[in-house]
Design brief:
By secondary structure, this protein is of the alpha/beta class. It contains 18 helices and 20 strands. The protein starts with a helix and ends in a 12-residue tail after the last helix.
């Protein structure tokens, strides 16, 4: 067999030599046309084709040499062209910042078809300067990717040099192993860890591996941010992430800690970091810390700016004899989810004077005994709000009032704003309070709320998917002297108009100058909104009685027309409403200065409304 191959090779060589000896280079030259703009070196080679006496191989060598020379010239010219571009004048620092922003754009990360490198790597192939800047920007490579090849992951760690590393384990990583993660963690320069665990895609890391991942960060002293979010449905084959007792004990520089939907079994996992600014815990287990250890932890986090605690508040217990009132002066946002007793206990033992956003969700309230069940919560909340939302820049307390109230029925939620009617949000940011009680009827929650809070200075009222009946209008909202705006979304228009019609101060002289008879003096039993200037009705039904006679619009026009000249409703907005036509719009135009209608005409019966799409997300509180 070897001798046969040798014979074949010799035969081929002889054929090649015979063919080359038969080639007439003058024939090749006659078939070529080239312009006179070619360089002299190229023309010299082409003009000497007919004089070549060294054979085809010598000719090819000369041509190949010239090609390499031209390619070198082209590369040099391209480099010069790129160097003269406008972007070339940008300083290296600016280019580095632009490249870092590219890595944050989803389109510049690895697509789901799993290439072996991210698409933003193309910036290293634009020109020499861009490549040099990218390769000498360690921060560009510090966001370590695991959805690329292991080789590229190692390359990123290498090019990141000594800068802190940011690791994101997201649900769409197709293949990953604990060894790859541990190799990155072994650098001991982890800056942030974001682990989003899901049933789909990735990271069906087993339970033990999940604990090992968290155990591997025990000695990460440079760690500043940890976000763990377990979005899986619980099952024995894919249990939730369990937080080890000392998971972050070495992270003394930790500034952000978010644990969502994980199993917390001990309160000792929170590090003693005085730099902690964001703490968000959403527990999926039955564990609750004791009140004493809970307060001890809060007392060491004086820099907290955002605090969110869901299903992790201590159970109701007697106050430790030595437990002082915990002050958190830096907290701007507070979110608490728990039972009424648990939330009330937190409010009793803490002082957060500068909080601007307060979100409380009270669970496990019996709808039949709601007022009594909510009493501990509102009893603790009332002085807490009075003491904290009233703090002004000048140190004056009590100068803020409840100015805006939003009521929604999905679920039962009240959102209100404490401020001053004459202040702008810039000069005096309002304090926003949100209270949700999913199992409580909205009317009960509203009635309990107004028992503890004064709404007499209310300027704006919004109601979403909540039909305010006549008793609420009369008993709760009567005589709101400052109320300037009412917005009803998917709420009863008929009841609202009927209450406006009861206003006893409708004068004999209407807004159009007509003479009216039979209107007496104000009564304390009926609502009156003298400052009302704007009414917005969205997804309202102007034919609730199904008579198709336009009576609802007629009554609305009559009520607006009979308001005092000094107290007119100046603006009415109607959007996405039913059984409202262009002729109805023309009627309303005669009694209001400004009427805005989106032009939608939807004639339907009440039965059709049940199929209407839920728009509640647009007004999510």
């Amino acid at each position: 067999m070897p001798s046969f191959r040798l014979h074949v090779s010799v035969a081929l060589y002889r054929i090649q030599m015979a063919v080359e000896s038969s080639i007439d280079v003058r024939t090749i030259k006659e078939g070529l046309t080239f312009p006179p703009t070619f360089s002299s070196s190229t023309q010299q080679i082409l003009n000497g084709l007919g004089e070549a006496s060294s054979g085809c191989q010598t000719l090819r060598n000369a041509v190949d040499k010239r090609i390499r020379e031209l390619e070198d010239e082209i590369r040099t010219l391209k480099t010069f062209r790129n160097a003269s571009a406008g972007t070339a004048a940008l300083p290296t620092e600016i280019l580095s910042l632009i490249f870092l922003e590219c890595t944050k754009v989803p389109a510049f990360t690895c697509p789901l078809n799993a290439p072996d490198r991210p698409t933003w790597l193309a910036i290293t192939q634009v020109c020499r300067k861009w490549r040099a800047v990218a390769l000498n920007c360690p921060s560009l490579w510090s966001r370590v990717l695991f959805d690329c090849s292991p080789q590229f992951t190692d390359l990123m760690v290498e090019r990141s040099r000594e800068v802190p590393l940011n690791v994101w384990l997201h649900p769409y990583i197709k293949q990953i192993s604990y060894e790859r993660i541990a190799k990155v963690f072994s650098q001991h320069r982890l800056h942030s860890l974001t682990w989003t665990k899901s049933t789909i895609g990735l990271n069906r890391l087993c339970f033990d591996s999940g604990r090992n991942i968290l155990s591997a960060i025990l000695d990460q002293t440079a760690l500043e941010s940890v976000i763990l979010d377990d979005r899986t449905f619980y099952s024995p084959l894919d249990p939730r992430i369990v937080i080890p007792e000392a998971a972050f004990s070495g992270a003394l520089a930790l500034e952000r800690l978010e644990i969502k939907n994980c199993q917390i079994s001990s309160w000792k996992f929170i590090p003693p970091s005085s730099r902690l600014g964001i703490l968000k815990l959403r527990n999926s287990s039955s564990f609750r810390p004791t009140l004493e250890e809970f307060l001890d932890t809060l007392s060491s986090t004086s820099r907290l700016e955002e605090l969110e605690l869901q299903w992790i508040l201590p159970l109701k217990e007697s106050r430790p004899s030595h437990a002082p009132l915990i002050s958190l002066p830096s907290v701007q946002s507070l979110t608490l989810y728990g039972t009424a007793d648990e939330v009330a206990q937190f409010l009793q033992f803490t002082s957060i004077p500068n909080a601007r956003t307060l979100d409380f969700q009270v669970q496990s309230v019996n709808v039949l005994t709601a007022p009594a069940d909510l009493q501990p919560f509102f009893t603790a909340l009332k002085p807490w709000i009075d003491a904290h939302s009233g703090m002004e820049s000048g140190g004056m307390s009590g100068s803020r009032v409840l100015t805006n109230l939003h009521v929604t029925n999905l679920p039962s939620t009240i959102k209100c704003t404490f401020g001053h009617p004459t202040d702008t949000p810039v000069s005096s940011p309002p304090t926003v309070l949100k209270i949700s009680a999913p199992s409580v009827v909205t009317s009960v929650l509203l009635s309990t709320f107004t028992t503890y809070f004064d709404i007499s200075q209310l300027c704006s009222l919004q109601c979403l998917d909540f039909d305010i009946d006549k008793d609420i209008w009369v008993n709760t909202f009567s005589h709101l002297w400052q109320l300037a705006s009412i917005e009803l979304i998917n709420s009863s228009v008929e009841t609202f108009i009927a209450c406006l019609a009861q206003d006893p101060t409708l004068h004999k002289t209407s807004a159009r100058g007509d003479k009216r008879e039979g209107y007496g003096q104000p009564s304390s039993e009926k609502p009156f909104f003298p400052a009302l200037r704007k009414i917005r009705l969205k997804r309202a039904n102007f034919d609730e009685d199904l008579l198709r006679n336009g009576a609802c619009v007629e009554r609305f026009c009559d009520v607006l027309d009979r308001r005092p000249i000094t107290n007119p409703v100046e603006q009415v907005e109607i959007d996405e409403s039913y059984n409202f036509t262009e002729s109805d719009m023309e009627k309303l135009k005669t009694v209001v200065q400004s009427l805005q209608w989106d032009g939608s005409v939807d004639m339907r019966d009440e039965e059709d409304e049940e199929e209407e799409e839920d728009y509640s997300d647009e007004y999510a509180y």
